[in-house]
Write a structure and sequence with these properties.
mainly alpha, globular, Fe-S protein YdhL (DUF1289 family), 2 helices, about 0% strand
Length: about 60
């Protein structure tokens, strides 16, 4: 493995319940995002972690 490469780890924190908006109460991923996580490429995972999830967290206030 390339020492410069750091794989994106799952944002799961073990609180696995979907809220009324269809987002996990623990990690804020949608059911589809959770199901696809293992098949996602690193770029898609990084975008989700760096852009999408922080936006969802900010929207929740």
């Amino acid at each position: 493995m390339n020492p410069q490469f750091t794989p994106v780890l799952s944002p799961c924190i073990g609180v696995c319940r979907l809220d009324r908006d269809g987002l996990c109460e623990g990690c804020l991923r949608s059911g589809d995002e959770i199901a696809r996580w293992v098949a996602m490429g690193e770029a898609e995972r990084r975008r989700l972690m760096d852009v999408v999830l922080p936006q969802r967290e900010a929207a929740r206030g």
